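This is your field. Have a critical look at both lines of this record:
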Amino acid sequence: MTQPGPPRAELRLLIVEDDQLLRENLRVLLGGEAGIQVLAACASAEEALSVLASAQPDSMLSDLGLPAMSGVELIRRAKAMLPALDIIVLSVSEDREAVFAALKAGAAGYIIKGATPRELVEALAALRAGGAPMSPKIARLVVKTFHDTPPPDEFLLSAKERAVLIGVQEGRSYKEIALGMNISPHTVHSHIKHIYEKLQAGDKRDAITKARRKGLI
């Protein structure tokens, strides 16, 4: 018979929120959840940093719009002090710049204020399990940003397109390239067309020159 493992240690949480009523509500609601221990509920970034080293929390739930030092700067400094600290933002801001500034500073999750206590508890659990919990609007913003961002040069061509272009560079015919890659000459032609479009090349020589310049071949 399998013996149950030891009970999982409580999640040690630090809350940073300048609104007194919300701060107290978060402390009471989250502190009343099984498996969560609220170590401190701070009104400012400065207060949070003053207790961070001694409190040694597992996770931090922080607003961004804090008085004096910003939430983004708090996140940056907190991660420098405790690199293993999991940080989740709780903010009214859905601004792209604010979201990405927080994530770049070290936040691993971003929840919009108005989330239910149960959603916050689930977000903290997901964060502790190695996830990156985000409100649906924030997740969509992140995905859209990646869709709108051109890929780095190293990912500009697919592996097959690079192989085709290398074959062209070596002077092989479409038929020879097709035979070596076990594809049809028509598929090789399609790859060439896509290569021209991606590199904005006018001909084979131009495509090879631009691909070399970008380190693709």
Remarks:
- The longest helix spans residues 185-199.
